[in-house]
Write a structure and sequence with these properties.
With 557 residues, the protein is α/β, with parallel strands linked by helices. The chain has helices at 59-73, 116-128, 140-143, 154-165, 193-201, 234-248, 295-307, 343-371, 395-400, 411-420, 445-459, 474-484, 507-521; strands spanning 2-5, 51-54, 98-101, 133-139, 169-175, 206-208, 214-219, 257-262, 377-382, 423-427, 463-466, 495-497, 541-546, 551-556. Helix 6 (234-248) packs parallel to helix 8 and helix 8 (343-371) packs parallel to helix 10.
């Protein structure tokens, strides 16, 4: 498609252009607009001779234009960016694809897409920014809510088709946990009603702390191999769910669906729910509590103690482990010369962390068999628990199930387990810097990320990353750029940004994000803006000579 712009004077009137997706406006910093509100015009610099704007013509572009036309007919327009000179100082490197997490409630409780028009416009904007794709939670509590083996994937089918139309890819999370009660949870999606009914009958099906407080976020791994869910084990239930997904989306796997992230715990992470925020139970930077007091976990602990000829060690978890909001030095177990560094401490922590590893391995073994040959990657998420990292015991990591101390590497066994299954290790807190954390909390997210990068390098496990908290500032993006490089262990194979919402599309935030995506495409190296880019959008339209027509051609890049 060719648009011809002609002028007989040095000034050209402002025109409206609704075609190239890469010309979405990034300049509005005073108003807070969502994808439903984009309106306005595109301004052109003065030209002295005839020129034409050449937009790449392909069936894909035609489809995009068709989609835009539908949006515009519904009153949705996009405000264009001022044309800029073409930058020629880009640094080449290995591209790190960027994905964006979709809202938690992208699919409604009724099983349909929430706000499809706004979502369609948002996907168009993300495509224009150079984003590789999006990530979505496929909630167990939505898909299998009508009863065992009764699956409703229709909302996700609609989403995958929409993503495909925009030329994007999608990562799908098998979310076997509840939504609600943790950082960033903006909605409530409990476990399936029939599962909650079984939990009411047997409260020990969920994780329990030493005070008897039950956590309904996720089924306790203590009953992984027991037929407690209407004749099926939890591992069988998860496997049947994944097999149903594979069958429903078999024509998309390895194409538009490039990755399946397998949920293995609360927030989809391989960990215990040791720091629950619901009802004010835990507050940062508390050490959390061990979650091993349901009858199934207690039975496993007792059996392990008997095997080690220390029957008394199997009666309960540590009696001196403290409470959720204490600091390590406030407890007998986690203090500098505490119980964690004794024979008993080693026994308990080894059992506790090994149970978590085995849980992850059992689920991933099932996923590996189900998705083998589909062309889709598998990934598993590990939490970035960076508080009290500078202490000897690493208390907050220990209660979550990561046996990582001053004397022991707790992330190498996790990386090795994932690597054996060919699973990508997806790690959080990639955006954090030590200097941004409270000094009293002993935080070191940078050291933690370096340790995980080294572990994945040693185990030859692929590493991907996420930001732990919603961040829109340039400093956070710069930190991700720094950690994405392979100068201290593995570099990142991909990065998933948390999360798409109205704030992301605000002027300054959007500019930072577009700049970040472009820099990641250059291998995690900062892309300096052209001096002509007064809007700092980092989207360029430059003029090149067209000898055959003795004119200049504006090329969108």
């Amino acid at each position: 498609m060719t648009l011809t712009l002609r002028s007989s004077s040095s000034l050209i009137k402002t025109s409206t252009l609704r075609s190239p997706s890469s010309l979405i406006n990034l300049k509005d910093t005073k108003t807070h607009k969502t994808p439903e509100d984009f309106t306005g015009t595109i301004s052109y610099a003065p030209l002295r001779q005839a020129c034409r704007l050449r937009v790449k013509n392909s069936s894909h572009d035609s489809q995009l234009l068709h989609e835009r036309a539908a949006l515009f007919s519904d009153g949705i327009e996009f405000k264009g960016e001022t044309l800029h000179a073409l930058s020629n100082n880009l640094t080449m490197g290995s591209s790190v694809p960027v994905f964006v997490m979709l809202p938690l409630d992208t699919v409604s409780m009724g099983g349909s897409l929430n706000k499809p028009r706004a979502l369609n416009a948002s996907l168009m904007a993300l495509k224009s920014a150079g984003v590789e794709g999006v990530m979505v939670d496929a909630w167990w509590g939505l898909v299998e809510k009508d009863g065992p083996l009764k699956y409703n994937w229709e909302g996700y089918v609609e989403l995958v088709n929409m993503v495909q139309k925009h030329g994007l890819k999608i990562q799908v999370v098998m979310s076997f946990h509840q939504c609600g009660g943790n950082v960033g949870d903006s909605c409530s999606i409990p476990l399936p009603p029939w599962v909650l009914e079984e939990i009411r009958k047997d409260p020990d099906l969920v994780y329990t702390d030493k005070s008897g407080r039950r956590n309904p976020e996720y089924i306790s791994l203590g009953c992984d191999s027991l037929p407690v869910l209407r004749g099926r084990t939890p591992i069988q239930v998860y496997s049947d769910y994944m097999a149903s997904f594979r069958e429903k989306f078999k024509d998309y796997l390895g194409g538009v669906i490039v990755e399946i992230q397998v949920g293995m715990g609360p927030c989809g992470e391989l960990r215990y729910p040791s720091y629950p925020e619901s009802n004010g139970t835990w507050r940062f930077p508390g050490i959390g509590e061990f979650q091993c007091y349901d009858k199934y976990m207690r039975a496993s602990l007792k059996a392990s103690a008997i095997d080690n000829r220390k029957q008394e060690w199997g009666e309960s978890g540590p009696h001196n482990g403290g409470h959720y909001n204490q600091f390590p030095e406030d407890t007998g177990f986690f203090k500098r010369e505490g119980t964690w560094n004794t024979e008993y401490g080693n026994f308990f922590l080894d059992w506790y962390s090994t149970k978590l590893l085995e849980h992850g391995d059992h689920i991933l073994a099932a996923a590996e068999g189900i998705f083998r040959g589909t062309g889709a990657k598998l990934s598993g998420k590990v939490a970035g628990i960076h508080w009290h990292y500078k202490t000897r015991s690493h208390a907050a990591e220990l209660t979550a199930g990561y046996y990582n101390t001053r004397n022991r590497d707790g992330y190498l066994p996790i990386a090795q387990m994932l690597g054996r299954r060919g699973v990508v290790l997806n790690f959080t807190c990639m955006e954090m810097k030590d200097e941004q954390q409270p000094g009293s909390a002993g935080c070191s997210p940078e050291s933690l990320v370096r340790q995980v990068k080294r572990a994945t390098q040693i185990s030859r496990t692929e590493l991907a990353g996420e930001n732990a908290l919603e961040r829109y500032d340039e400093a956070a993006f710069q930190q991700v750029l720094a950690t994405s490089r392979a100068d201290s262990g593995n570099g990142l194979s991909a990065f998933t940004y948390l999360r798409m919402n109205k704030r992301l599309f605000e002027g300054q935030n959007w500019r930072h994000f577009v700049d970040f995506v472009k820099s990641m495409s250059q291998g995690g190296r900062k892309t300096w803006l052209s001096e002509h880019d007064s809007g700092h959008s980092d989207l360029y339209v430059g003029f090149v000579h067209d000898k055959s027509q003795k004119s200049k051609v504006a090329v969108v890049v």
